[in-house]
Amino acid sequence: MNRHLPRNGTTGVVYNKSKIGVVDSLRKLFDLDFLQRYSKRIFIIDDPITATMIGLIYLGRDFTDPRSYTVESLSEVYEFFRKIVPHIVFLTTDQLIQELIRESVYAGVAWSGDALQAVVQNENLEYNVPIEGGDLWIDMWSIASNAKNIDLGYTWIDFTLDPWVAALNTTSIWYANPVPLSNEYIPEKILNNPAVYPDEDTRKRLKLFRPLTEEESRRISEIIWSRVAGV
């Protein structure tokens, strides 16, 4: 039996090519002239860690390096946000999917699965990992060491790791799963989609996100998020 259930995705840029053309870089997405032209039509997912990571990438920093989370470094990320916040909106995952489909927003930073759920419902949308790079992240369901219903936990995880069920998850939410046998049930258009299963070229632009320390998370909250979120 398995105690863990991972899934993975990427963080990148989703854009409406019929409204603003191709957006394959953070430099274009956050160019002030571009933002002013499409003010409040550009978004960032409402997540402090993801937003901070994107700010670091834009500034040419390595988001896996602990030195990127010093007070000085995060203060520079705050200055980046201070300049762009008047022209962007922060959206939750559910919000950004619907706003993209309705074409109320034209481009933004999103997690791959959420972006692709919108892409399949609006042919004008595209998703990519920007040329500056992005992160490959892994979500993990796990059974707590002090769980009271551990047998039910094992049963649920084993059920979800069944190849057919794993394939159903991937085809529903567009996130990759760790079950090779599930490929038999996943359409080729998904298996061959680098936004779901990154190809070699895409992988070159990705770094594996590392868990942040409590102190790093606290600094993000105090230096950046508490000052820009909801503005």
Descriptive overview:
Helix content is 44%, strand content 18%. By secondary structure, it is an alpha/beta fold. Helix 5 runs parallel beside helix 12 (214-228) and helix 6 (93-102) runs parallel beside helix 7 (112-119). The model has no long low-confidence stretch (mean pLDDT 95). The protein has a domain at 8-146 and 199-218: D-Maltodextrin-Binding Protein, domain 2 (3-Layer(aba) Sandwich). The longest helix is centred in the C-terminal third of the chain and has 15 residues, at 214-228. Strands 1, 2, 3, 4, 5, 6 and 7 form a seven-stranded mixed β-sheet that branches. The chain is built from twelve helices and seven strands. The radius of gyration is 18 Å and the shape is globular.
Helix/strand layout:
Blueprint: E1 4-16, H1 17-20, H2 26-29, H3 32-37, E2 42-45, H4 48-58, H5 71-84, E3 88-91, H6 93-102, E4 107-111, H7 112-119, E5 125-128, E6 134-142, H8 150-160, H9 163-173, H10 188-191, H11 200-203, E7 206-208, H12 214-228
Parallel strand pairs: 2-3, 2-4, 6-7
Antiparallel strand pairs: 1-4, 1-5, 1-6
Helix pairs in contact: 5-12, 6-7
Quick structural gist:
The protein has 231 residues and is of the alpha/beta class. The chain has helices spanning 17-20, 26-29, 32-37, 48-58, 71-84, 93-102, 112-119, 150-160, 163-173, 188-191, 200-203, 214-228; strands at 4-16, 42-45, 88-91, 107-111, 125-128, 134-142, 206-208.
